[in-house]
Design goal:
mainly alpha; 4 helices; ion channel; transmembrane helix
Length: about 150
């Protein structure tokens, strides 16, 4: 059990570093484009959509990291099945159609906790950018009326 906790925590740390780098990259992407963004709502949404895609890619990469761990431990016969199981864990769906062996079962809940936290981080970054885009759009609309 202790080895599973160590494996899980190490994987969480690697993924946290990855998520942190991607969030910084995504927010820099947004900041660079925000200053050149016309006040039009659709232009702002195009930038926010780009940010969202970067964050989704980050979550998919993290799912893949966990899947590689499961696959390397011999939990699944194919990488595809490993990725599916990892995605279910990461998204905290908990289908239960595929269950890991008793030896490594603790890794599933660890990934679920990690996934909930990382999706929350992505949501926070996206919410901030969306709020700023709406503020810029709202400010432009107000100044247009005056």
């Amino acid at each position: 059990m202790l080895i599973n906790v160590l494996l899980g925590m190490t994987t969480m740390a690697v993924c946290l570093i990855l998520q942190g780098l991607l969030v910084v990259w995504a927010l820099r992407y947004y900041s660079r484009r925000r200053n050149h963004m016309p006040s039009a709502f659709l232009a702002a949404m195009r930038v926010v959509t780009g940010l969202m895609l970067i964050l989704i890619i980050g979550n998919v990469v993290q799912i893949s990291v966990w899947a590689l761990l499961f696959y390397s431990l011999g939990e699944f016969d194919s990488l595809g099945l490993s990725i599916y199981h990892s995605a279910v864990n990461f998204a905290t769906l908990g289908y239960g159609d595929i269950v890991m062996s008793e030896q490594h079962r603790l890794l599933g809940p660890l990934e679920a906790v990690h996934g909930a936290l990382m999706i929350g981080v992505s949501t926070a970054a996206l919410s901030r950018a969306f709020g700023e885009a709406m503020k810029v759009h709202g400010d432009a609309s107000t100044s247009d009326r005056q």
